[in-house]
Amino acid sequence: MSIIEFKNTSKHFGPLKVLDGVDLSIEKGEVVVLVGPSGSGKSTLLRCINGLEAITSGDLVVDGLSVTGGKRQLREIRQEAGMVFQQFNLFPQLTALENVAFGPSKVRGLSREKAREAALNLLEKVGLREKAGHYPAELSGGQQQRVAIARALAVKPKVMLFDEPTSALDPELKQEVLNVMRALAEEGMTMVVVTHEMGFAKQVGTRLIFMEHGHIAVDGDPREVIDSPPNDRMKDFLQHV
Amino acid sequence: METDWSVLVEFIPELLEGAKTTIYITLVGLIGGLVLGTFAGLMRAYGGHILNAVAFTYVEIIRGTPIVVQVMFLYFALPVLADLRIDPMSAAILAIVVNAGAYIAEIVRGAFLSISKGLTEAGLAIGLPHWKVLVYIVGPLAFRRLIPPLGNQFIVSLKDTSLFIVIGVGELTRTGQEIMAANFRAVEIWTAVAIIYLIMTGTLSLILRSIEKRMSIL
After folding, report:
1. Entry pTM
2. ipTM of this predicted complex?
């Protein structure tokens, strides 16, 4: 069974069809890279998976649960699908450790001790154990994004959704975030990544989807479709990233 | 013109009694106003169409009318309309509750809505219900932004109690007025009254500033 399944899924903002009848199955262990011009619907597609955007019609099933199944079910889906945002969105009043421990203690109901321990291990994993006591404002963008990845992982999701995770970062800071993502992919994490990093797509991605006008225009092996784009629109797009 | 500041010695205890009443009305009124305003503000920010409309109407009616008219309405018109007699003190407190509540509602709404939507999304994305996001994430951040405008409102409300002279509540201004009517020591009495107000508002400012220092805005 696919872990994520779009079934003729549409999303409208008023008269604007941002997703127009998308069919897409994502299997466990895939690293799907979503690319496309702005407004093509790639971020919306991602945000529909964890219900930050409600779908207008069709169905979307995540780990056997439909996103249309009500609030409680949506919360279950969100625990299975962690998200990393372009703007990090760390809680500014909490330290790095508290940010990471927040989910396990408030969502999974872990004791304070256990949540802290788990959080420290995750910070270790993203290489920031020594920054545990720092507040987000005291961290660089790259470090903040790594904490945000650890925060999402803390809830033990089966899928990780990345919404342009490196777009707000300076070039030299991008790499540290991409490295963490690569390690995660190597562990077998299922990932859906909206990004403009074609190098990452080729090295880490197992599948590349090019979106245009709310449709999936290209769906294939990242190396193949990036090196020889199957349509002109994609060729044109790749020349500009 | 001759002034005789020694007359104050005789009247200070009376003025302080009035100041006590002022503090009492302000304190009780603001506690009520804070509760009412928080509810109304959250209704404005997060309520559905109906809750939002109710809170919006309340805020607009109160913001659009003078507090003197409001207290006159509570004290003189309400008994006629609803057969509900209230004493001047209760009318005064109620007026502060209702009046401050409307302004506090806007302060609360503004503070909550000023917190980046991304933080709410981040909270939702880890599987928290919306109310927990408000309680654990948005609320604490909004609270810090509430303090400066709230302090302003507290001071305004404290001074607004002087308007309850119109329904005969024996607060500081009314007390000053009564003493003045008996001895015509306008300069001495009104200076003393002004200084007592300054001491009260100044103390309030100091308290708020120390809270603000401890909770930096993030």
Report:
1. 0.87
2. 0.93
